[in-house]
């Protein structure tokens, strides 16, 4: 079987809870086949099984451990949406207001037409270049946020905003930028300040991952 790597698996189904020995046996078989990553099984916030195994970075021979940080990719969207709604509750953002109100430097055709609500619901109507040119876009991990937005998220409109759902990364990248503009702080700072105690640990993990990527010139709003 071809070796594969999976960064993070979260199982919550009840059939395997309390069966850690069986799980360990299954995991051992996958480890023998080349699995690299972390496996976490939890119920009601209690960790039932946690194991790190394999190599996180083959070039430097760094093994997976509790210090490992993973690319979180679109998990960030959940936090981005929550932060926008928190700003809305604080009357700092109007969901029916357009991008240009909070981000006047934005150059896209929809700057005065696309609302915050449109971005939240993937209905901006933008030309989704960042999705179409996926390999070119994401082969470079050191895009500056403003450069990325100017290059891939500032094109023409192909649909009237609010008329068609079209999943994208760019809509939430723009929301991340708007969060920074409205708050006058970095995404990480706002995340730490706004998250409630119920997601405090998750926010800490997200922030830690964000800091890791930021040190390498990466911005994680996807």
- Sequence of strands across the biggest β-sheet: 1-2-3
Query: Oligomeric state of the chains?
Result: single chain
Pick out the low-confidence regions. Answer: 1-14, 197-222
Structural class by sheet pairing and helices? alpha+beta
Quickly count the helices: 10
Shape type: elongated
| Helix coverage percent | 40-55%
**Overall average residue pLDDT:** 80
Radius of gyration: 20 Å
Number of strands: 5
Structure report:
The protein has 222 residues and is an alpha+beta fold. It has helices spanning 20-32, 75-89, 99-102, 116-120, 129-132, 134-138, 145-152, 170-183, 187-194, 200-215; strands at 5-11, 36-43, 46-53, 55-57, 62-63. Strands 1-2-3 form a 3-stranded mixed beta sheet, covered by helices on one side. Mean pLDDT is 80; it is low at 1-14 and 197-222.
């Amino acid at each position: 079987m071809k070796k594969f790597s999976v960064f993070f698996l979260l199982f919550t189904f009840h059939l395997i809870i309390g069966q850690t020995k069986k799980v360990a046996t299954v995991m051992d078989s996958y480890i023998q086949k080349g699995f690299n990553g972390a496996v976490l099984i939890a119920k009601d916030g209690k960790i039932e099984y946690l194991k790190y195994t394999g190599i996180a970075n083959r070039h430097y021979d760094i093994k997976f451990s509790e210090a490992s940080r993973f690319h979180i990719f679109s998990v960030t969207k959940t936090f981005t949406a929550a932060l926008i709604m928190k700003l809305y509750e604080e009357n700092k953002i109007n969901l029916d207001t357009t991008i240009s109100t909070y981000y006047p430097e934005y150059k896209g055709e929809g700057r005065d037409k696309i609302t915050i609500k449109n971005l939240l619901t993937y209905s901006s109507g933008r030309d989704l270049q960042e999705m179409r040119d996926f390999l070119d876009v994401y082969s470079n991990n050191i895009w500056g946020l403003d450069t990325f937005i100017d290059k891939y998220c500032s094109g023409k409109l192909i649909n009237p905003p609010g008329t068609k759902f079209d999943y994208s990364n760019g809509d939430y990248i723009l929301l991340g930028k708007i969060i920074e503009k409205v708050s006058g702080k970095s995404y990480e700072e706002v995340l730490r300040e706004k998250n409630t105690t119920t997601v405090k640990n998750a926010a800490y993990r997200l922030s830690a991952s964000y800091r890791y990527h930021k040190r390498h010139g990466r911005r994680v709003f996807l």
